[in-house]
């Protein structure tokens, strides 16, 4: 690995004019995106390969990153998706027997422009106060571009609000993972940025998992005769995904059981008739406390979302779109944000966080069992008629 002090100069520029000088990390060049921070102290490989981070420049709040390198077993998808990467102290050596390459080399191979050696705590505190904002990393020759020109490029970059990024991260054709153990039936998974750990967890519950492109139609879903439908996590603004909302309403109208996570939670909210809004700086990391209102249990959970559902957190309410009673099932304890929805009159529920949670924690893994039980109960109910 190249020494930090031998790399090219780099600068992080935020849209409010804030600048931080450091050294190049990963690929050299220019990248633009929404600057966000992730609070996980481990699992950076899972973060980098999570498609939900497409379009975002991710800052790691943990100061020392890269000591375990990168390996071929833990990726959550086919590539690194972050638009850029910000770390304070990159590891100078790789110290893990499972490592195949260094993080620096992996970033360079996937063309991800990064910056190291800056005060990531200061940037985090600034974002917490001012909110997530557009930014750019300029390294190598690009670091020498006139500062006013760098700022102009940042301010001309698209904002995350209003973006539909599903087509950029979804599979191009259906992919099938066989069920493990006792087979329940076919599960239609709408790939809005699905993670491999999610597919593995669903297959382990007896579902034959059909990962479908994000532009699939309701007739194409019906054609595989699914026992249920699942909406994955993914990047972008839920308000810009009207087609996915319409598709989900078709699923609900067919009476199919539904489970959604992260982006899927927001789209269930919209299908039920609720609104969504952008959070000031979002929830990202693997240490977020959430209350399960049904059990009173507090779970430590993995999050990656910049948008949330707008719904009353107490009591039940009528779905504006006519799907019966609905309640908020989970609430974030840091800021009382809606972290889960449960329909009381139809077989549908969702959570805003990641129950697959590679590389942990696993407090919420029971939700896959809850989904399996919902589907089995629905099949038994149909068989009894």
UniProtKB/TrEMBL annotation:
PROSITE patterns: GATASE_TYPE_1. Keywords: Amino-acid biosynthesis, Arginine biosynthesis, ATP-binding, Glutamine amidotransferase, Ligase, Nucleotide-binding, Pyrimidine biosynthesis. SUPFAM superfamilies: Carbamoyl phosphate synthetase, small subunit N-terminal domain, Class I glutamine amidotransferase-like. Its EC number is 6.3.5.5. It catalyses: L-glutamine + H2O = L-glutamate + NH4(+); hydrogencarbonate + L-glutamine + 2 ATP + H2O = carbamoyl phosphate + L-glutamate + 2 ADP + phosphate + 2 H(+). L-glutamine binds at residues 52, 234, 236, 263, 266, 304, 306-307. GO terms for molecular function: carbamoyl-phosphate synthase (glutamine-hydrolyzing) activity. The keyword Ligase applies. The active site is at 262 (nucleophile), 354, 356. Pathway: Pyrimidine metabolism; UMP biosynthesis via de novo pathway; (S)-dihydroorotate from bicarbonate: step 1/3; Amino-acid biosynthesis; L-arginine biosynthesis; carbamoyl phosphate from bicarbonate: step 1/1. Belongs to the CarA family. This is Carbamoyl phosphate synthase small chain. It comes from Microbacterium arthrosphaerae. The lineage of its organism: Bacteria, Bacillati, Actinomycetota, Actinomycetes, Micrococcales.
């Amino acid at each position: 690995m190249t020494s930090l002090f031998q790399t090219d100069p780099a600068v992080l520029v935020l849209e409010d004019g804030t600048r931080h000088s450091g050294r190049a990390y990963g690929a050299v060049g220019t990248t633009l995106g929404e600057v966000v921070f992730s609070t996980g102290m481990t699992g950076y490989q899972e973060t980098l390969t999570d498609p939900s981070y497409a379009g975002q420049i991710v800052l790691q709040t943990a100061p020392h990153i890269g000591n375990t390198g990168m390996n071929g077993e833990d990726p959550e998808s086919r590539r690194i998706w972050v638009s850029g990467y910000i770390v304070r102290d990159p590891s100078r050596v790789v110290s893990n027997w499972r490592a195949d390459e260094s993080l620096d080399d992996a970033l360079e191979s996937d063309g991800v422009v990064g910056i190291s050696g800056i005060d990531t705590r200061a940037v985090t505190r600034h974002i917490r106060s001012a909110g997530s904002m557009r930014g750019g990393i300029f390294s190598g020759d690009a670091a020498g571009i006139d500062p006013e020109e760098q700022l102009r490029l940042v301010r001309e970059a698209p904002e995350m609000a209003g973006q539909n990024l599903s087509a950029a991260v979804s599979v191009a054709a259906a992919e099938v993972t066989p069920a493990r153990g006792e087979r329940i039936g076919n599960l239609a998974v709408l790939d809005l940025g699905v993670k491999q750990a999610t597919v593995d967890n669903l297959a382990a519950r007896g579902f034959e998992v059909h990962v479908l492109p994000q532009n699939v139609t309701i007739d194409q879903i019906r054609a595989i005769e699914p026992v249920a439908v699942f909406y994955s996590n993914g990047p972008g603004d839920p308000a810009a995904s009207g087609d996915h909302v319409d598709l989900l309403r078709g699923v609900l109208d067919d009476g199919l059981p539904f489970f959604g996570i992260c982006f899927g939670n927001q789209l269930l909210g919209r299908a039920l008739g609720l609104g969504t809004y952008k959070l000031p700086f979002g929830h990202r990391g693997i240490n977020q406390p959430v209350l399960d209102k049904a059990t009173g249990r507090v779970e430590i959970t993995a999050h990656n979302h910049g948008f949330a559902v707008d719904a009353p957190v107490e009591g039940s309410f009528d779905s504006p779109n006519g799907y019966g009673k609905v309640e908020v099932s989970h609430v974030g304890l840091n800021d009382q944000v809606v972290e889960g929805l449960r329909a009381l009159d139809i077989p549908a529920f969702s959570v805003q966080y990641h129950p697959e949670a590679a590389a942990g924690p696993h407090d919420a893994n029971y939700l896959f069992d809850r989904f399996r039980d919902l589907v089995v109960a629905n099949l038994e109910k149909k068989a009894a008629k």
